[in-house]
């Protein structure tokens, strides 16, 4: 836990309390702050005598060798980048738990069969470069390297003032901070025996049920889109409503409708980024660009919500501007598609046994009741590793289920519990 | 008309056709392009032997002396700045008609009693610095100089890449292009006998009634606000709708409601600028800033729409986030308040007589039917000059009533008609 907050010294975000650690984090992927924490991570792992690999996506793999050289290492992985108004736990906890695990193994003089590694995946958040888990996606060969390298940063990330005028690509940003490695980004070049990830839940279930550990068995489906509504610029003072093709008014109706439709199917639909052009008080916006994030427990449900929204958005667009025979149009671009995922039974078993072992001393009648099987609402790099190697995850509770917010909080106890569970899970898996 | 397009060489905007003049304009106030056209304007007026005054707001006054030195000049005025996706006529036509009028007077060897001046007012559009007509407002001593000098540019104007990171104030922008004059900006220091302004209608009435000249008798009321909706950042993938205080969803409901309420009272309500923070695909925006422009034919109606919207927006905000006991809040800031205006009867008479004279040769039974008394939907610098000196305006039709759009268009004939009317009106007024 000391190390966790230590690693947060690069990229302080919004302050919400009086203690030194009462700040959020703003460490966007491949920013200067990200470079600093990467340098720290590599130095720390070298001090632990790990072998370091940096691949073409800037993923950093640090391996503590095992007895056998002929089998790949078992990895603990997550990410050190954050949201623009992120917290100190999302991702960071997972990497730091890996560092902690290796330190413990050294302290105990523990020798493993295969090696044990820690991996920091690049741009998991998808906040600066708008495809989440992109670098584990390339590693899994689910996302082409060229697509990832050419992906541009979003124009609205306040902390990076060049974003609007001359957006960086992932490749140029990797070069800029010196993390464009030469090793191919692939599960073939940098293989793993398995991937385990510790993460805060980012949702309310553990905390409201008073449970301490989540054994993550699955991840819900999601799709990310960029949408463009095209209307007509015109004067706000002289143009009657019937004579407008107001792209922002059409957007507003779409957003209201999106919640309605998603809710009816037990799904979510959210808009995080919006840009209205030309952006003048007295010009009706002729163009609106926005992001749309649809999620649901089943891949099929997400597809259904998308289908309904496509029809409804078209209808809304057609109405706005119909009076002048110049209706709005709406265009969709799919940026990212992550079907629902089920994790590997072997890994789930290791996590579950470890969780039960760790909570065994709890002063409650049935300690196992402190452990819950859970589906993740958020995506994680484990989604992509699971396509290639046995994978599962461990969740620990966070206050109020709040995440992607500066006040995101996980108690030192819960962090420690999670770290113990992941260490045990890895050792268990190694012995299988 | 040649000069009109000539003056458009600084700040080409969006191209919409094949002819050299088939582009819009993007000449934001106090940009480099604005500096160029100002330099051109001053040189042109000096060539016409005018006396030039540049005041603390960068307003440029050029005066052709009359017989008498003891009376102030009668002015023809408008503005050379444009919207980010503006056209070639809005404002520009008015200044160029002034230049043309002075050239004609020279050609005819016409001597006037008082002088005749042309004024280019700074930042009439309110596009870059979000208070329209601000510099005629300071001149009329209706807006304090310090408020105007400290006004910041909007962060969203795409063409000025520094706007987001280090926004200029009007004062710093004036300095940057060398147009921070030393003469006090006041009707007391730079007095006028009267102010006439030629402008495209920017609305559909003249063109749909097939009329050629609008005698502008009044201007509708408007108010500009900046609003802030404050909710809570949270994860899009893990946060149920009931657990959200989604500032952008609340905004969407507000915008839908604003049209409803304004329409019910024969008013307009429009949003031109929006910014959602933090601006990440997978973070529910915890803050939305937007502009609101309310207009109506009577000052009281605008106040009523505002009052209803304040109540309704509060109610919408209160609902969003109620489930977590952290409802959204909404804050209003009034940036600009322009009550309805009636122009001066003497000026209206001069314009009307001139308009009738100019259309007298028209091949229709009642040429006067080509002239219409009209209320302006848009604000103009004449709104502020009218507070201090007799003022009125002349409108000419524009295609489709379209303005604040690159395809804004006024035929060469209509431009010429307008220029003739304003020249005659000024001469008539001078002789009174
Ligand atoms: N865990 C997390 O916040 N990942 C970002 C990807 C997502 O939006 O779910
Ligand atoms: N004429 C014109 O477009 N002026 C800008 C001020 C307004 O928004 O009405």
From TrEMBL, chains A, B:
Question: Which InterPro entries does the record match to this protein?
Answer: Amidase_Cbmase, Bact_exopeptidase_dim_dom, Peptidase_M20, Peptidase_M20_dimer
Residue ranges constituting the Peptidase M20 dimerisation domain according to the UniProt record:
223-319
Example GO molecular function? hydrolase activity, acting on carbon-nitrogen (but not peptide) bonds, in linear amidines
Q: Which UniProt keywords apply?
A: Hydrolase
* Pfam families for this protein: M20_dimer, Peptidase_M20
TM ranges are none
Gene3D superfamilies, sorted: 3.30.70.360, Zn peptidases
Query: Which domain of life does the UniProt lineage start with?
Result: Eukaryota
Q: Which PANTHER family match?
A: ALLANTOATE AMIDOHYDROLASE, ALLANTOATE DEIMINASE-RELATED
Q: Which family does it belong to?
A: Belongs to the peptidase M20A family.
Q: Sorted alphabetically, which NCBIfam families does this protein's record hold?
A: hydantase (TIGR01879)
Protein name stated in the entry: Peptidase M20 dimerisation domain-containing protein
What organism does the record attribute this protein to? Penicillium argentinense
